[in-house]
Amino acid sequence: VVIQTAIDNAAKLKDKIFVSQGTYLLNNGLVFDSHIHLQGAGMDKTIFKLMDKAAPWWDEKGRNAGMIRGSFIKNLTITDLTLDGNKLNQLTDEKSLYGRFGVFIEASKNITFNKVRVQNFQGYGFDPHGYKPTMTWTENLVITNCVSNDNEWDGFTIDQSSHVTLNNNVALNNGRHGFNIVSGSKFVNMSNNYAENNGFSTSAKNESDGEADGCGIKVQDNFGFGTRNVNVENNIVYNSDRGGICLDGVKTVEVKNNKVIYARYCFMAFNTSNSVINDNQFMTNSTYLIISENSIKYLNNINTT
Fold first, then answer.
1. E-assigned strands of 94-169?
2. How far is CA 157 from CA 21, 24, 130, 136, 185, in A?
3. Largest Cα–Cα separation, the chain
4. Could you read off the pLDDT of 138-185 as tens digits, one per residue?
5. Helices (H) and strands (E) in the chain, counts
6. Which of 107, 160, 162, 240 is 20 to 30 Å from the Cα of 185, by its Cα?
7. What are the C-alpha distances in Å from 280 to residues 136, 188, 271, 295, 300?
8. Is the dihedral of CA 246, 223, 163, 9 positive or negative?
9. CB within 8 Å of 257: residues ≥ 6 apart
């Protein structure tokens, strides 16, 4: 209650909030308005942790997702803290599972996360996205120097977002994809990120889209929104259950100077057009490449078995 009150007051003043070192137990998510900068004392120093057997975020008042959430807001910056979903000590009924994400930002503008760790959530780690009923995209999203680890679904899901920067982030031990660019996201630049040990969760193998397991980096389309103009450069992907880098139903994607080590398939592309895959290094002990189209330019890659 104290933290939420401080956030509400900061929104009125367009102010900055500093939260000192310590672990703060939360039962509900924190709701943000526009023009706020929330700063902790440092990653793993200021920790917002979901208390044991926390109340469902789906109740008679409605459905609310995310420990940090905001809809149709602008100019939000969050830095130097950790969000912990405490997943091993939560209930697992349908309502208790709903919305257990670290970050849930919807149809918003000018959003920045820097030096934020999101871990141990029953759903997604980072889940910024648009608002589908009005076809409103989140715009100008920056996620840098962040870590998303040990979440049951994706580490970073970039859904229906435009003009996105993902730089120097780590996705580690997430149940499905490490990084997932999806639902019409466009003009996305992801560089110098690291993904390791993603896609191995049993629960992530039962999603309705039928995908059996996860990729280190996945760029895909659904809803027919047209995911496009994505640059995947200078990333390292290690030990993914299905594929290192996977493209599906997208166009105008450049995959350049990445290193993929150990995966069932190092690189996969389906229903992908007007894209270039060049100067990558693929190293695996199994099939390294699956491409279903001839329109992809595949140049100067090093394939080592």
1. 103-106, 109-119, 138-144, 147-149, 156-159, 161-167
2. 28, 26, 12, 17, 10
3. 58
4. 999 999 999 999 999 999 999 999 999 999 999 999 999 999 999 999
5. 2, 29
6. 240
7. 34, 19, 21, 18, 7
8. negative
9. 233, 234, 279, 280
